[in-house]
Here is the input.
Amino acid sequence: MTRFRRAVVVVCDGLGVGEAPDAEAFGDTGSDTLGHVLAARAVRIPNLTALGLGNLTPTFAGARHPRPDGAFGKMAERSAGKDTATGHWEMTGLVTPTPFKTYPGGFPTALVSAFEARVGRKVLGNRAASGTEILKELGEEHVRTGRPILYTSGDSVFQVAAHEDVIPVDELYRICRAGYAIACLEWGVCRVIARPFVGTGAADFKRTHNRRDFPVPPHGETLLDNLAKAGYPVFGVGKIEDIFTGRGISAAVHTKSDSDGVDQTLAAMERIDRGLIFTNLVDFDTLYGHRNDVDGYARNLEALDARVPEILGALREDDVFLVTADHGCDPSDVSTDHTREHVPLLVRGPRVRPGTDLGVRPSFADLGQTLAENFAVGPLAAGTSFLSEL
Here is the structure.
């Protein structure tokens, strides 16, 4: 018998809880997204603290709870990367053993030339950069010339920014699909990201919620594929549909903000009575982690905390609610890149035993394997279920 009829998984994109065992190999020794944010100022997160979030960070003890309301632990990543795609794929049971290619020095001339020929436009930039800073540097030239801004980061991403009044959003998506055919299929890049923005000048250029991700598809079957085959609905909120290229997703909605992401999650909980509701809250990563905005990160934690009672109040007797992340993105770090960290594993529901310490799990895939066992759609290729511990 299925123990939980419905699972609600919320991924706080970039909410790491302390360096992973192999953090040194990724240049991330000492990283602790949550701990450094909590240590920077008083952060009011009583509801997340009650779930056990503060028990997970190694560098800040002020948010620990003696007996969390649900089960709590943290997970390490086995995949060879610290990217959104590999993190999400692994939490659904698919480990990525070979890293995607990165181009921190900019993309090769042959790649860029092929892309320019395909889209009929010359590009600006072609270097690793902060997404907000490169708009300040090249945004006005882009508006004047119509040339899209191409940039990357320490991750395997091919990002294209364009003003929505200069290159309409649908045209930018077409340009990014052309980039996918070259950068991803021929040069080993994981994701192309469309970065539309608005504004009248460098001082007020602002990226919009029309961002879209165009990643390579998962290289094997995931929990979502298995749920779909078994007839379970899988509802994606935020960029979940993009991350899995639609595979295993029965319906989805994109979001404008993390607040909207919670709204859409609650709306889905009213309509969908079984299966999986899978939500990504990207503002932690995009707006605060990558911008080294510690205070903004703290405010976003507080905003999420204020919504937690709404989610808990919407849980049914046979629901399970899980909070996790896909990687770290320490806003106090010297870089603006993702950080190789453990991620939280918080589990709550009427049938979940309170105060259960799930320990340190060796793979994000333990989450997916647990849900696969619950819905009888496993086993998955990786992971160890903790269903019996809940």
Notes: The mean pLDDT is 97. The longest helix spans residues 294-314.
